[in-house]
Amino acid sequence: MSQRRGGRSTRYYDFKVQTTSITKLCNTKDIPTINGMYPGPVVYAQEGDKVTVRVANESPYNITIHWHGIRQRQSCWSDGPSYITQCPIQTGQNFTYVFTLVQQKGTFFWHAHVSWLRATVYGAIVVYPKNGVPYPFKFPYEEHIIILGEYWMKDMVQIEQAVLASGGSPPPADALTINGQPGPNYNCSANDIYKIDVVPGKTYLLRLINAALNQEHFYAIANHRLTIVEVDAEYTKPLTTDRIMLGPGQTLNVLVTADKPIARYSMAMGPYQSAKNVSFQNITSIAYFQYFGVTANDLSLPAALPRFDDNLAAKTVMDGLRSLNPITVPKEIERNLFVTIGLNVQKCQSKNPQKDCQAKGGGVMAASMNNISFIKPKASILEAYYKNISGYFTEDFPGLPLKFYDFVNGAPNNPPNDTNSLNGTRTYVLDYGSKVQLILQDTSTVSTENHPIHLHGYSFYVVGYGTGNYDPDTANFNLVDPPYMNTIGVPVGGWAAIRFVADNPGAWFMHCHLEIHLSWGLSVVFIVKNGEGPLERLPHPPADLPRC
Domain Plastocyanin-like, which positions (predicted)? Predict the structure, then answer.
């Protein structure tokens, strides 16, 4: 429901966190959902709207909801990551998220931000332009939301606890899913297929969202080209391609025209796995892009996906992305940070190493930024910062690696002897309004890998992107029309350079959106101080903020 006030509406949503019985792959289990739906309900709004979502927790799990890609101008308390901006909503409790869509429109999504519950607790957010404002491309005949996901037959909380207790790597998903459906390649799933019925000659807008947990994915439609027009809810110059790679946390809008012979065409989702020696689900999930006029007996035409380790296919699309219009990129950089991202193996501290230390070399898996593994505190960092309570975090995250070496080809790799990281709840403090450049550098300890790095509270300009070690003398930067994103796939054995202005006060999480890496510590918190003016200050916390 919604109410209008002076041109701005308020959209109200009720989210009930419930345990719902679901059958997939000949297996029935209880999963946490919102309102019994999997995927969850779509939040619809218009640019400039205020959105109010009351979350009532009727499940046995602690929960928070993150509104991924929403910049939360002056509403950091509603951002949602557990123990960063709030304590979880406990069983029987509720909390109302309130935020305004300031100069934002496009495809976003929401998901749980406690442990691994987002495996099933997720849904789309669609924000339309203001009344009378057209899309910057031909108006599509229809729009469809396509959410990529991963499904496990076992209970997610138990899987997470078992993986972290073992010190080893997570099991691959039992199925890849498109809008919650595995498709005909999977056991007992001949009827669990998502379908779009299309009219020959018409153009469709597909809002693609990767809500998967631990895996990046390729997506393609048999015999059809996809024209990218928006990435992370910001318009781009049209870029036409046969297939795209989406990491968890990324959204893409594509136009596709039904200009082929009448047939049933596969929409396919398969794995992109850039790390070495990792087990993954390689059975393709299929949905149908089927023309009116096909018969029930018509076979589907297969979609060609890249090989699972095709780094070039991932890079090609990223190389071509440009913002629709020229933009003012921050030029005079005041804070220049260099952050390595990657995996670690810690020494075994257990009396039962066979059970608890299953990483390479008999160690325990970890992940880090600048070789510091982030440990989530027992209370909300934002609350501790706002109320000036000491003991929950420190403000000494290093803006440079503790030591420089050949990150891509010469990283320490004798686990667990030289692959340890430091542990800590370290934050990095930014003055209000400071212009920040961040170089994100992949390292090869354990394995190089494409890491989808997400920053809360901001979008950023991806001004540079390349393979190998970052070298300021040879790096090519685009300061004219770089893409404006909230989740950047830092390339396998490579680097990305991002810029933003720290003009939104609060505590903002930056982390890898592969959930296992987040659990292992691949994250940091930026604390952005208040500015001078009334609209440059963190407001006081809401009265119903959950307690720890």
Answer: 17-131, 142-291, 415-531
**Which residues fall within 8 angstroms of residue 495, CB to CB, at 6 or more apart?**
439, 440, 441, 442, 464, 465, 466, 468, 469, 470, 475
- Concatenated DSSP letters of 381-444: HHHHHHTT--SS-BS---SS-SS---TTTS---STTTS---EEE-BEEEE-TTEEEEEEEEE--
What does the pLDDT look like over 150-165, one tens digit per residue?
A: 999 999 999 999 999 9
109-168 pLDDT, tens digit each: 999 999 999 999 999 999 999 999 999 999 999 999 999 999 999 999 999 999 999 999
Show Cβ contacts of residue 196 under 8 Å, excluding neighbours closer than 6 positions: 144, 204, 267, 287, 288, 289, 290
Cα–Cα distance, 185 to 164 (Å, whole number): 31
pTM: 0.97
Instruction: Look at residue 514 and tell me whether its pLDDT is greater than 90.
Output: yes
> Residue 417 corresponds to which amino acid?
N
Does the structure show a pLDDT above 80 at 456?
yes
Q: Which two tokens stand for residue 17?
A: 């966190």
Tell me the DSSP string of 498-514: EEEEE-S-EEEEEEESS
How many CB atoms within 10 Å of residue 104? 21
Q: How far apart are CA 46 and CA 219, in angstroms?
A: 28
453 - beta bridge partners?
488, 512
Query: Where does residue 14 rank: exposed (0-12), middle (13-18), buried (19+ CB within 10 A)?
Result: middle
* 93 touches 119 (CB < 8 A): no
Segments in 30-134 forming alpha helices (H) = none
**Ramachandran area for residue 314 (φ above 0: left; ψ -120 to 50: alpha; else beta):** alpha
Provide the pLDDT for residue 1: 66
State the pLDDT at residue 485.
98
Are the C-beta atoms of 444 and 409 separated by less than 8 Å?
yes
In the predicted model, what is the mean pLDDT of the chain? 97
Left, alpha or beta for 260 (phi > 0: left; psi -120 to 50: alpha)? beta
Q: Return the closest-CA partner of residue 366 out of 523, 508, 526, 172.
A: 523
Yes or no: say if 227 and 221 are a contact pair by the CB < 8 Å rule: no
Cis peptide bond prior to 39, omega within 30° of 0: yes
